[in-house]
Amino acid sequence: MSRLDALRGPSPPVDHNARSIAALAANPACHRRAVLDAAGIDKGKVVQHLGHPMQFGQSPFALIRSRQFKAIVKESGGAHLLRLLRELLGLAVEEAGYRDVEDVDEHAGRALLRKHTEQLLRSAAENRGDAATIVDHPLLKLNVAGYDVYLEPDVIAFQAQGKFHVVVIKTFAIIDDQAETAKVSAAAREAAVYVHALRVLFEQLRLDPQRVSHDIVLVCPENFRNFPTARLVDVRHQLEVLRRQLERLARIDTILDTLPPDLSLDLMMDGDTPTRSAAELGAAVSGIPARYAPECLSVCELAYFCRAEAKACGSLEALGRAVRDDLGGIESVSTVVNLATGAAVPSDDQVAVTERLRYARRIHGEVVA
């Protein structure tokens, strides 16, 4: 049994997805999330048991609607999708092929599905007679912090001009040619993970990775109907940020070496019910260093637990990265207050920060006087 399996216990591992990788890469210094993700631990169940349930995610209704919309987009051999790709990418009718990776075997494992994905993409790239225009249910592999994760984009489209496009299907609406900016940005960050993983695969297949387009196809409902429409979204910025952040991630084995050898995050499930003491589990989670920031609240299941932890110990983390960086070298709110009021003597590396704090306090005093 590996160290990660031992950390998780007998519960089945939770798979990564593009959203989880984007969230992890956005906070590369957070060892807590890195360990729980690598071990495949269900973070939602952990924080629910600890009394700090996550405040985001899809409702059962939203999940059902997502599955229904994807089925509409892909039905009849991807008829809607082929129409959209022809309009956006200039596909000719005779090039509109459709291949499903999962057709190889209904019960195929990851290794076989990934091999079939490679074969279909290589075939398309080399312009063989059976080259696919659309590859559905592809399986990609990406090394994250020293361990492999598997990813399944919605589809990968191939067009005659030699470019491959990742297709992302979302259920937020495009109304009068406009979509909610925050949702489009989140979709772009997820799509960038798929584009990056596909380019890595092309390098492994000795194909030109630049044949994977930085323009992704975003498919959404049009107006208030379930009728699909699509737009091209440029994810070059998201790709560059993702690559830089993935390079900053510490290797998971390096992080594990710093943790107690008997550390366990096992929920001790009895059916669907955790039986482990919440206090004991909380202590175990707290034993892994976190890097909390308010931005975590919208992307990480652990965020509300980490925020409560940061507030309880008076950590500057709870005030955000900008404050923490401005007050570099100071760890707690109480230290900041003591330095600003003169109740504490600054160390040599705190002198400059202390001068700014006392100046700000003096200005504040003059304003409110």
TrEMBL record:
Q: Which domain of life is it from?
A: Bacteria
* Protein name (record): Secreted protein
Species of origin reads: Nonomuraea rubra
Q: What is the lineage of its organism?
A: Bacteria, Bacillati, Actinomycetota, Actinomycetes, Streptosporangiales
